[in-house]
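Standup, Tuesday
Yesterday: got the pipeline producing structure tokens again.
Today: sanity-check two examples.
Blockers: none.

Example 1:
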Amino acid sequence: MAKIHEAAAAGDLEKLRKQLASGFLRRPADVDERDANGRTPLHTAAGAGQQEVVEFLLEAGSQINLQDTHGQTALGHAIAAADGQLIGLLLERGAGPNLPDVLGNTPLHTLVRSGAAVDILPICALLAHAGADLNATDARGDTPLHIAVDTGKSEIAHWLIDSGADVTIANAEGNLPLHRLLARGEGPQSTEMLELLLKRGSDANKPDGRGVLPLHGLLDRDDAPANTAPVALLLEHGADADIADSNGNLPLHRVLREHGAEALELAETLLEGGAGADAQEEDGSTALHVAARMGLENVAALLLKHGAGANTVDGTGAGPLHEAIAHGAGTQLVTLLLDSGADPNVPDASGATPLQHAIAHDDGWGEAPALLLDAGADPNRPDSAGVTPLAAAAQRGNAAVMHALLRHRADVNAGGALLTCAADGRLDCVRLLLHYGVNVSVTDSQNRSALQLATENRHVRLAGLIGQYALNPKKGADLPPDPAPSKPISDAVARGDAAALEAALATGADPNLKPDSVPSPLEVAVRQCNAQMVTMLLEHGAVPPARLHNGAAWATSMGGPKFAQIAQLLADRGVDVTGWDSDLSSPRPRPSTGGDKGQPWGV
């Protein structure tokens, strides 16, 4: 560093005077002598906050608006130091308030971008009073307002807007200050800033440089469900809640897909702000379709309250009820849709009604089909392939659904349900059909009767039952159908709730009845090594199956009193438990009376 610069930085006026004075055999130093970075002594003194030196150099003729190699003037260096008094002096002496550096930053850009610990608002006012352009843009097209918003200087942003900064200027990327705020905004200060920008003219529907609308930008954030206040502000100032994003997602649909039940409050904000409760995306889906598909009962209730159509269909012809059934929604949501007018008989594009979807997806308890039938679903309407609901239930061996259909006047002879159940050995299903008067003489395409199919497949007990009623059809009506499987018993055992099991057994429900695809309550109790429940079930008529498989709980119970008690209880009822106390092998099966599948109906 030249001596004159050293003196300027140190504030050594005496040395400066000597450097600038002429003498014998010595040329005076140039008052604007530049260093390697193009800085003059005035730049150096301004950056060091040496006000007396600055005044001396100006009096000595230093040019106030010379720029260094970075384009900074003495004013720029003083601003970098956030020296308000020195900045005021330079402005009074004619420093240009709008001279940009090589990156296009004016002194105001530099000041707003600085991380100075001092209050820079008075300095901003000094620059504005001297004529600083509040809307000047840097090389990226950012105004001081862009920078204030982007760096979280809400007080400066407020001052800029109040002083006339244009909130509608987009930078080179196409982003307004509004877009920058939404990309980083957090907390109440950001919400206040958003309100100010909108009130002063920011367009709530102007896309950013990527084509993203402000509302969609907010919904892009991971914390979108917590952003109800800014979303409400955008909607109040004209944001269109029914414009799809670049992927075709409507705002309401999107928040439900991405945030589920957490988006309830945000969904209500969108609806109250103008989002159409029945607005459809390109595939025809409404928000109610989405809620039904995801099992969002509270959201569905909100949408219905705001006018969503319970029968609006998407591009596949499916209504919300189809979606709820097909995706395993709970009975409360299905009931809500039915109570809101959903038609259980509307077919989708494949020809399937909600009832047919319910049969295809039933878990063995028949709850959803029963709800639909109670609401007026047609028990005899075939699908596009001509398969009736009863035939579909028979193909799945679902006695609970078959029972519900028959109670609602399904045609017992339609679709060959008897032939299907006979071939599959479904004694429980055949018993139901016989009770409801099925024609046992019906044959399949190869002229095989139900009796022949049962015999060919070695379902001995089933063949005997069909043969008995083939000889005397009138006896079928005397055969009462067993009740549907007792879900309360199974639920109580699964929870290990002895009190609930006692209550369920007290109703007289048969502890042996169950869907074919799940273990019996007794099997579950044995696997849990729950001696109390095993005892209760056996006392109420539970019949041990021919084969029991040990569960993991047995390994921790070897030799214990509960283990021994359960083994004895089962042994007393004919289950061979030999070896269970040593190698945990499955017991040997009892002799079988035939190939019948499922729990016998007591024949």
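Example 2:
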Amino acid sequence: VRRGGRSEAGDQPPRYLAPSTHEPIYKATDNVTNSQKKKKSITFLDQSLAATLIARSVRLHPSPQPISKAGHTTMTGATLRPDQADLPSAKSTASYWHREPSTTLLGHRTTKALPPTADVVVVGSGITGAFATKELLEQQAVKGKKKVLLLEAREVCWGATGRNGGHCQPVAYNPNTAIADFELRNYAHLAHFIAANAVPCDWVSLRGVHALLTPDLVAAAEKQIAALPPHLAGLARLVTDPEELKTLRVPNAAGAVVQERAASVWPYKLVAWIFEDLLRRFGPGSGAETQSENGWFNIQTNTPVTRLQHLPGSSGEASWVVHTDRGQVAAKKVLLASNAYTSRLLPSFADLIVPVRGQVATLLPEPRAELARSYVFMASSDASKGEPNQDDYLIQRPGPGLEMILGGGRARGTLRGVGVSDDDEVDPVVAAYLRRAGATNVDLGNEGEKEELTASYEWTGIMAFSRDGRPWVGPVPSGSVLGGGEGLWVCAGYTGHGMPQAALCGRAVAGMMVGSQGGGENTVDVPADFVVSEERAEKARALPSIKEMDDLDMFLL
């Protein structure tokens, strides 16, 4: 939901990711003809064993009954701890990006019934889930096919990816060079993927302007840019000349950073195209059903996962039971691509990945001035004037509509949105701010400009703020620190900066899961700071809480 950039501090140690040592999941054969067995050994979990595991889990841990939270309708499955994320809202605000939903994916369930087993269960269908699932299916097509089940609480791409500001803006002047390099690789990967496949998602490459409205942010940016290594130095420059600031349409800024790499995009259409393509290639009717009755890929929408149950001591067979409101699924591996909602299923992450509500509006300036750049507007808070910080982000849709998509104003909302899991309402104070800011943040070149613009869409979405500012990517170890177990993986916590990071993070975690890390053309590295570990969690917990850091403007430059 947040704009496309924020900086990270700290040196980056060399990346190290141990290759996966997980064995193939399924041992017994089923649903395979004799002729197929002769051609290829197709293995998947014995159905009677799956039934036994699920029956045992239900006896020992019956699924909790749904409850209703006061003030709104949710799909919660149990009473939550005060700091734990809720499940996604049953009724969400209408995002501009959802106005043209995929007829294939809306309400899609590949099979009428929930499959009782899967090799891998992916929870979440945003950009992380899309690229992770794509990698899982494509790599396993070579390594030996496995059944992948994607579970989504609502519709496909109905969370943060389908509710963001339409930005993809890597931060080239991030003082952490490894992260800057990774974001630029992610940007290039997306641009190439979209062009090579002619994905109709309105990707527009352009320059990005970070308008710095307070002198302290100008000083911070100047220091960061001066320290850039040669290969990054030409990708970001600081502008303080008043005349050039006017040319950039930010005459009231104290300074601005102009970045060479930025883009606007229709994020829902990108994700929807990927899932439609995967269904064509790996789902029923793709030709894959000659080896698996219903193909290798199954999507089940409107199927919230209510909890996870680990079955220790079941080496070589299903080690997880995934509980949903429609039944249970036995699986060897589970990937949580659930971002802000991660702690709902993994309570140990409640203080490491915190839901934060953001708000966005589609604005209609008249006449429609055409903007050649995307924008971020940042200002530190001023306690003496009672002014909160500013962290707004703006793109313009291509013609003929030329609508402006503006997000931000979070500091003016209730609790600044921190700890809020619900996207079923808009904050009227933030909504009014965005309509005013749309008329004043950028110079539209119109005489007698309105003090407030008309909004055609206003919506909210839930970001996932990470306590140390980095996403969490990799296997979740068992124990009291993180509460995971063998076969559980996570890829979440982008702090509102997912579009420049999530695609390659999703590919990387999938590569870890199938054991491709450690070399080869399909290897995707992530910065070492992104990798999940108990040591990292303990260091993060030594920091102030996310709410405390947010109150101190620590998520700005």
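Quick observation on example 2: The first strand starts at residue 117 and ends at 123. Residues 2-78 have pLDDT under 50 and may be disordered.
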